[in-house]
């Protein structure tokens, strides 16, 4: 990818920019870190950018304060699920990234897998456990669910990010316990067949797949601590794939992102199974932008500084 420079004329066109971060989701802490980094980068580039935390200010203040557009860096519910996108559309304020439908689809891991399956894109087998079913007279048969998924599974709240509420399970009791934990975050739980292989992520930036990153961690899986706290996590970019395979994972990620109505920028997470097939995990429409986040690492490999990356994401609000 060639480095694209945002001109002074473009900077003027942005006007007054609200950087939306913080919020009330379980990912507030990460959003605060991401938003601070983005705000500093935009201000360094000469953008008239200001912090706006929806947890502290009514959304209508965006209009009263005369903001021309919004850079959404709210992770999780309330910022990444389509609700903030819908509110901004009603207020007539342009914003970065994916719209209402695409945000809602990508935030929901179950609907994402259903869309990908309908499109013929590869993703692991799965079952869905609901809070209503767990609380009913006919409770889930956890042993049967696990047997249908080859005996090992990942349990995930359907609409959470940053690996919050996730667990790897290998027997029926572990599965039941993990489902109960996941239900503390969501009414729907995805139980996904475990993929034994390396994990990759591909950043999408304005129609281009950036170089893939391979993650390696001594943890059981790439969990919250591995992402944000543990210094032993390794990030390989270049990821070590040959040119043909790199092209393959990039095209698959683009198809997955746009298959969910993605727009502007985002990140697609995948794993490679024992047969060498890349399996889609999820699509992130407002990925992390902290110092340890994956998108800035991929952008750097593509020749983009953090400031240039932030400007290119902001440019998507001009569409």
Chart the SSEs and their pairings.
Elements: H1 8-14, E1 16-20, H2 28-44, E2 48-52, H3 61-64, E3 69-72, H4 83-91, H5 100-107, H6 109-118, E4 126-130, H7 131-134, H8 142-148, E5 153-157, E6 167-169, H9 172-182, E7 188-193, E8 199-205, E9 208-209, E10 213-216, H10 224-228, E11 234-236, H11 243-259, E12 265-272, E13 278-284, H12 294-301, H13 306-315
Parallel strand pairs: 1-2, 1-3
Antiparallel strand pairs: 4-7, 5-6, 5-7, 8-9, 8-10, 8-12, 10-11, 12-13
Helix pairs in contact: 2-13, 8-9
Pathway: Cell wall biogenesis; peptidoglycan biosynthesis
Family: Belongs to the D-alanine--D-alanine ligase family.
Active site: 27, 162, 293
Question: What report would you give on this structure?
Answer:
The structure is a single chain. This protein is α+β, with helices and mostly antiparallel strands and 319 residues long. It has three domains: 8-96, Rossmann fold (3-Layer(aba) Sandwich), CATH 3.40.50.20; 105-122 and 196-318, D-amino Acid Aminotransferase, Chain A, domain 1 (2-Layer Sandwich), CATH 3.30.470; 126-193, Dna Ligase, domain 1 (2-Layer Sandwich). Helix content is 37%, strand content 20%. The chain is built from 13 helices and 13 strands. Strands 8, 9, 10, 11, 12 and 13 form a six-stranded antiparallel beta sheet that branches. Strands 4-7-5-6 form a four-stranded antiparallel beta sheet. A hairpin with a 2-residue loop joins strand 8 and strand 9 (208-209). It is globular and about 60 Å long. The chain starts with 7 loop residues before the first helix and ends with a helix. Belongs to the D-alanine--D-alanine ligase family. Mg(2+) 1 binds at residues 269, 282. It is found in: Cytoplasm. InterPro entries: ATP-grasp (IPR011761), ATP_grasp_subdomain_1 (IPR013815), D-Ala_lig_Van_CS (IPR000291), D_ala_D_ala (IPR005905), Dala_Dala_lig_C (IPR011095), Dala_Dala_lig_N (IPR011127), PreATP-grasp_dom_sf (IPR016185). The active site is at 27, 162, 293.
């Amino acid at each position: 990818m060639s480095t694209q420079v945002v001109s002074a004329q473009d900077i003027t066109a942005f006007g007054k920019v609200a950087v939306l971060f913080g919020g009330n989701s379980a990912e507030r802490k990460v959003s605060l870190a991401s938003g601070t980094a983005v705000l500093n980068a935009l201000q360094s580039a000469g953008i008239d950018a200001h912090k706006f935390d929806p947890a502290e200010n009514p959304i209508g203040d965006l209009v009263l304060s005369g903001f021309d557009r919004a850079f959404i860096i709210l992770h999780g519910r309330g910022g990444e699920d389509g609700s903030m996108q819908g509110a901004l559309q009603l207020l007539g304020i342009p914003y970065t990234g994916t719209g209402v439908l695409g945000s809602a689809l990508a935030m929901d891991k179950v609907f994402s897998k259903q869309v990908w399956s309908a499109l013929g894109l590869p993703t692991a087998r799965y079952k869905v456990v609901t809070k209503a079913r767990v609380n009913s007279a006919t409770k889930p048969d956890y042993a049967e669910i696990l047997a249908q998924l080859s005996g090992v599974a990942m349990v995930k709240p359907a609409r959470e990010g940053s690996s919050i509420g996730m667990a790897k399970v290998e027997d029926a009791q572990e599965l039941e316990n993990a489902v109960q934990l996941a239900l503390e975050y969501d009414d729907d739980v995805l139980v996904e067949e475990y993929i034994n292989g390396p994990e990759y992520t591909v950043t999408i930036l304005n129609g281009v797949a950036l170089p893939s990153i391979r993650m390696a961690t001594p943890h059981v899986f790439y969990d919250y601590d591995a992402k944000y706290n543990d210094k032993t996590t390794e990030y390989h970019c270049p990821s070590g794939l040959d040119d043909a395979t790199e092209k393959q994972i990039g095209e698959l990620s683009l198809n997955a992102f746009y298959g969910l109505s993605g727009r502007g920028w985002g990140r697609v997470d995948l794993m490679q199974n024992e047969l060498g097939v890349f399996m889609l995990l999820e699509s992130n429409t407002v990925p992390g932008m902290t110092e340890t986040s994956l998108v800035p690492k991929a952008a750097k490999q593509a020749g983009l500084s953090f400031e240039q990356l932030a400007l290119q994401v902001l440019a998507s609000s001009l569409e």
